[in-house]
């Protein structure tokens, strides 16, 4: 049997999404066998991220810089803004390399069951970004869930006073699906086929 430290590492890894106890044990065994090439670099990378981890004050992304690397990328079109529920959604859409603009992370979605209200999300900062001007199109990239669509409708009402083109992802996304779990092809098609919000 493993020592208490190794057991604690296994339990910590087992709490990560996508890893159960067996997968965590295999990962720990791999890290122990490849101590110099796997364990050391992993520990250094985790330490560096822990030291510098920050939430971007502009968009809500998680990065080691504030403002984040997405917001400071001068190649991005500042006139395009994609609104997502969570950081995982931003990363999923950005992996497609098809959206040339910037992002805004709400930090969740409206949910009466979970008690998430508009004031619990980064909606006021989104309105502030639009009020500052310079944005021509806002893409509502909400998950295709009831709560995601409720959030999109609420945002459409809040943003209708701004002189912007308001679009949303195409409905080719599976109902009940979440952006972080979709493949790049599906996300790419949804971005290409975005349409005005009705």
Characterise this structure.
The chain is α/β, with parallel strands linked by helices and 198 residues long. It contains 7 helices and 7 strands, in the order αααβββαβαβαβαβ. A 5-stranded mixed β-sheet has the order 4-3-5-6-7. Helix 6 links the parallel strand 5 (137-141) and strand 6 (165-168).
Looking at this protein, list some descriptive labels.
single chain, 198 residues, alpha/beta, 5-stranded mixed beta sheet, two-stranded antiparallel ribbon, 7 helices, 7 strands
Gap between N and C termini: 61 Å
Shape: elongated
Mean pLDDT: 91
Count of alpha and pi helical runs: 7
List the topology elements:
Blueprint (H helix, E strand, L loop, with lengths): L3 H11 L6 H13 L1 H18 L1 E2 L6 E2 L16 E5 L2 H9 L6 E4 L17 H9 L5 E5 L4 H14 L5 E4 L15 H9 L2 E2 L2
Parallel strand pairs: 3-4, 3-5, 5-6
Antiparallel strand pairs: 1-2, 6-7
Describe the structure in brief.
The chain is 42% helix and 12% strand. The chain is built from seven helices and seven strands. The termini are far apart.
């Amino acid at each position: 049997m493993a020592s208490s430290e190794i057991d604690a590492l296994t339990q910590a890894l087992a709490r990560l999404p996508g890893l159960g106890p067996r997968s965590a044990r295999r990962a720990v065994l791999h890290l122990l066998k490849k101590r110099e090439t796997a364990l050391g670099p992993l520990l250094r990378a985790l330490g560096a991220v822990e030291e510098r981890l920050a939430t971007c004050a502009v968009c809500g992304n998680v990065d080691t810089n504030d403002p984040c690397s997405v917001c400071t990328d001068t190649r991005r079109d500042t006139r395009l803004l994609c609104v997502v529920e969570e950081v995982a959604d931003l990363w999923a859409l950005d992996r497609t390399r098809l959206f040339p603009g910037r992002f805004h992370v709400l930090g969740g979605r409206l949910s009466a069951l979970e008690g998430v209200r508009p004031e619990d999300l980064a909606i006021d900062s989104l309105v502030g970004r639009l009020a500052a001007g310079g944005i021509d199109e806002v893409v509502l990239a909400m998950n295709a869930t009831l709560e995601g669509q409720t959030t999109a409708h609420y945002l459409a009402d809040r943003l209708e006073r701004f002189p912007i083109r308001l679009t949303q992802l195409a409905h080719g996304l599976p109902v009940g699906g979440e952006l972080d779990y979709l493949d790049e092809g599906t996300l790419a098609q949804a971005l290409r086929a975005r349409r005005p919000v009705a």
